[in-house]
């Protein structure tokens, strides 16, 4: 299992997940840079993602929806704020209506995904920062740690294919 640690910090409003992959940084970067690869690992296995728009440049936007086991759809978006290919990118991540209009009633997080060479592979650090402890607690109650860990753990199979 690639996820080696998952910690939340209500004082600093952060959720940090660390994972390690047996692949070079550039290969892990490709997963996020390629919408067809991203949709194989974004969302838990029972909620596969469909990436509709993908612009991984500062100012770009990624729109996606996940489809649940009953056919239910849940949309989200990224607003890309920084890119340092292939070692990191930052984005605002939010929930959306099915037309990708941001849903202001659900939390938004500021995220930094970083990739560093480690032990012949890559250590990925995923940090999400929330506006309030209540927002962080809300996504924790929604199962974000479990869902994100299941999603990230799919990366190994994609790297092996």
Automatic annotation (TrEMBL):
Pfam family, one: AHSA1
InterPro entries linked: ASHA1/2-like_C, START-like_dom_sf
Domain Activator of Hsp90 ATPase homologue 1/2-like C-terminal stretches: 22-159
Ranges that cross the membrane: none
Sequence similarity: Belongs to the AHA1 family.
Protein name per the record: Activator of HSP90 ATPase
Species assigned in the record: Catellatospora citrea
Lineage, uppermost ranks: Bacteria, Bacillati, Actinomycetota, Actinomycetes, Micromonosporales
